[in-house]
Amino acid sequence: MNWTRREFAGLVAAGFLAPSALMAAPTVASKRKFLFVFAAGGWDPTWVFAPMFGRSGIDVDTDSTTSTQSGIEFVDSQERPSVRAFFQRYGSRTCVLNGMEVRSITHDTCRRLVLTGSTQAQGDDWPAILAGESSGFTLPCLVLSGPSYTAKHPTVVVRAGETGQLSKLLSGEALQESDSILSGFDPRMTDLVAAHVNSRAGAFAGLRTGVGEAGFVRDLSNAHEQLALVRDLPDLDLGSVDTSGYVPVSQRVSPAITCFRQGITRCATVKHEGLWGTGWDTHAAIQLQGDHYETLFADLLLIQDMLENTPGEVEASLADEVVMVVFSEMGRTPKVNAQGGKDHWTDTSAMILGPGVSGGRVIGAYDDVLLGQKVDLASGELSESGTRLTSAHLGATILALGDVDPGDYLGSVPPIGAVLG
Amino acid sequence: MMLGWTFFLWFGCNGGANSPCMEGFVRNSAGACDRVVEDSRVDTAVEGDTMVEEEPTPAPEYVALDAGRLLRRISLDLRGTLPSLSEIQEVQTDPSRVDVLRDAYLEDPRFEQRLVQLFAEQWHTQVDEFLVTYREYQELASSPGSEFPFERAVGDEPLRLMAHVAANDQPFSEILTADYTLANEVLASVWSLDYPSDGEGWEVSRYTDGRPAAGVLATNGLWWRYHTTVSNYNRGRVAALVRLLVCEDYLARPVSLEEAELEEDDEVEDALRSNPYCMGCHSSLDPIASALFGFYSLNEYNIFEIDRYHAEREPLGHQLLETQPEWFGVPVSGLGELGGAIAEDPRFPRCVAERMTKGLLRRDVGLNDFETIEGLRQSFVDSGLQLKSLMRAITDLPAYRAADVSGAEVSTLHLLGAPRLADIVEDLTGFRWSYWGFDLMTSDTTGFRVMAGGVDGAYVTDPQRTPGLTWLLVTQRLAEAGSISAIREFGSDDSAFFADLNISHSPGNAVFEKALEDMVLRLTGRPLDEAHRDSLVTLWQAVRNTGSAEDAWAGVFAALLQDPEVLSY
User: Angle at CA B167, nearest 5°, toward B162 and B171?
Assistant: First the structure.
């Protein structure tokens, strides 16, 4: 059975999916924007999201304890003050998902699974779907760094380049970054050539009317329209990234904040590689997870600060318009290995915060072997008759938050109603 | 001793019903192997959790490309560059010459480089980062300009070996048995290779560390990309090997540890050898991993561990995995015999046929293509595994030669993106976009490879198939740079397009008109039509009104380089 629009609407009516008017934050779901922060390499949920002390089968950070802030129970440590600070400030807007099964243990496959819910090569990820199902965004899905999968919505995905290449291409600065000294065309000549090329694209579309040519022609036309719109933006400053040293993610997201503020982007993705960009894939030295989490949450605090202090398109601040999804492609094994690290694990955690999210909640849990426990999707409570959370449920929930019918992409996989209020 | 949940990074196990099916069979929803139906037009699709059969679809009907555009497609696919003006004129006069030229292209020196590109799209070794950098090597550390050449040389090594085998008419199985590799000066300066003292560029070389003859399986480049951890025991590498060489994908299968019904006290390595759920993969996977322990490193960030073969570690496979080396039930003595066993696997030629068809048709190959692939496989085998023969057969397919199609939703118009876009512009104008030693059109950290439709081997693993915003922007800037570079030779005998022109030539002048016609024919494979001619002349005059004749030609040439007829094929 597919998750139909009728059923989707029925859930809304039944209160499982609160229409935006009933939610604390008033931004309508179709206007919500999304920032995806991807912790690349596989994080260990037992270091922050899932206090698993006292289980013989699970090795944990022994220098930490369980704390609760704003309804979020988490693993607290003096070494990770940013984690505590984050939940103090934003716990009431945050929902943690524990025990989410990804169903693979290799990076490539898990990345695709956590972002698309499937291993199919021709799938769209959540950001691409949200952007593709919306309209009016000039740079609908901005990929600052990290993975991106798209098949149905290829033209909505715009890669910014890890060092600000998009900005340099737009300004022409890219040509100056060349071993051959090039100044590029003067603006008038650029305009003349661009007008000619646009005209030729139109003529091309008129001639290329075959079935096998349709996709190319359509996307070419869209790209030209999109480029014209981007060029018309008055104050687009996507900035560039200094490549001479480590750049915190909180700085890397600044083009996304700019685009959210201007209302030209619905989704943005950024990769987080932990402390000094060394990556979360800690097969040795599991204690690095603590450092990575501290770095991540320090960045998340700064990002939320930026969102709060930036006027929104509709709301007073972007914090009331932007949903932030923080996730990793996999979890890590319960026990420490011979190298003092932990290896890949199928079950992991994710965190969602922002408008439309039922905050101050931890939904789901791990059992004694660090596998997810079943959850009643509507209430969010653990239930033997409930459902094992998967990345597809995460995706359905994100799509529902963005007013996209999950059934169109995920068949019968429902959203986690409890996350939605 | 009870180790409890002392986990190793073991390969995911998911049921005895999930081992790869033999050739000609597919896994059904119940986990059993079904014979592939004879009517390849019956497709299957995933709907929810159930595989469903779709109605048979009628065979597609193709509209053939004209000779000029077909030659252009073939040249781009086999040489990575455009046909010459005279070649296009030749096939316009006599379309039967297309096949003659196609055969000549297969012998063109550029064919080998083009194969590297085609392999790179699917082998994903041309990544921007490996676990170690050039700074680890004294010979390179003091030269920041070494970063890109080093990274690319490492990633290119297995691709170059495969391209060399194919271009030199060796049976393609030699990629698995060769006692040599391909190396360039960069690799020769840091690895133990007998690179010729008078060598230049990529040369046949041999490692001097005693590694067995196993073609790409004995290259550092492959195993640096597909590295393993101490606790993974080469299992991830096996998944890559099996996918790349016999087109079976362990990783596409779901892994649910709950279904494995493991208990808290279970020793995972024991479970991998006794639990049916785990054995489904590991019974075939671990014996292959057992053959790779000469490349097993104790620290994957240490060059002394990862850039040399450790023959003394070969027995570790048996000790740690408790299985002798095998290739899907065929015993092998180690890496040296593994390549041969893979080469003998009937799935190998079929996989090569699938991969090359995907590369040239620029689309995924599915069950609807079963008969086509089977025919190609047979002809490939009959040719003695000559890759040129296979590619010749693919370029004969109606699907390959199609301008359009009915009865199928497949694209017949292909995107020209990185890296070929860069090669074409360089070929036409001499311009190569590089900066501080980085080739910007084939790298991503500061470059534009993925933005221009290419593959980074990590996050983007398939080439872009239709236009997008960043592709358009890159083509625009590349066209600007290329035309500025080309116009520097305005009026020079060395110029490909502007040799006969001088500043007095203007629209209506025979030299002007001929230059315009030749440019369009060379770039698009089609004659210049009147409407296009008029629009180009209008552009030329508009620029000339405020600038020089050189500026006007630069504008026209930049416009042509961005023309959709040029950027598609």
Answer: 65
Q: How far apart are CA A45 and CA A52, in angstroms?
A: 9
Question: How near does any CA of chain B get to the CA of A14, in Å?
Answer: 24
Pairing mode of beta strands B44-47, B50-53: antiparallel
Residue A402 CB neighbours (<10 A): 25
A280 in Cβ contact with A287 (< 8 Å): no
Query: Which of B6, B433, B469 is opposite residue A226, by nearest beta carbon?
Result: B469
Which one, of B18, B63, B69, B37, lies nearest residue B569 by Cα? B69
> Do A229 and B480 form a contact (C-beta atoms < 8 A)?
no
Q: Which amino acid is at B75?
A: S
Written as six digits, the tokens of A45 are: 């949920």
- Least confident among A2-6, A301-305, B52-56, B128-132: A2-6
- CB-based contacts of A132, cutoff 8 Å, min separation 6: A124, A140, A141, A150, A152, A153, A156
Question: How many residue pairs bridge chain A and chain B with CB atoms within 8 Å of each other?
Answer: 261
Q: Say how far apart CA A53 and CA A368 lie, in whole Å.
A: 10
Low-confidence ranges of chain B (pLDDT < 50): 1-54
Q: Cα separation of B441 and B418, whole Å?
A: 6
Quick one: B201 exposed, middle or buried, by C-beta within 10 A (0-12, 13-18, 19+)? exposed
Task: Give B371: exposed, middle or buried? Use CB within 10 Å, 0-12, 13-18, 19+.
Answer: middle
**CA distance, residue A245 to nearest chain B CA (Å):** 13
Please state, in angstroms and as integers, the Cα–Cα distance from residue B459 to each residue in A40, A239, B35, following that order.
11, 23, 34
| Positive/negative CA dihedral, A136, A25, A96, A283 | positive
β-strands A344-345, A331-332 pairing:
antiparallel
Q: Does A243 touch chain B (CB under 8 A)?
A: yes
Read off the pLDDT of residues B436-476 as tens digits, 9 standing for 90 and up.
999 999 999 899 999 999 999 988 889 999 999 999 999 99
The Cα–Cα gap between A323 and A303 comes to 12
List the single best residue of B1, B3, B9 to mutate versus A (max A Cβ within 10 A).
Answer: B9
State ipTM.
Answer: 0.86
Q: Tokens 């990234």 appear where?
A: A241
| Nearest by Cα to B268 from A86, A330, A333 | A333
CA dihedral in degrees (B15, B18, B22, B27; nearest 10)?
Answer: 140
Distance in angstroms (rounded) separating the CA atoms of residues A2 and B524: 46
Q: How many CB atoms are closer than 10 A to CB B32? A: 11
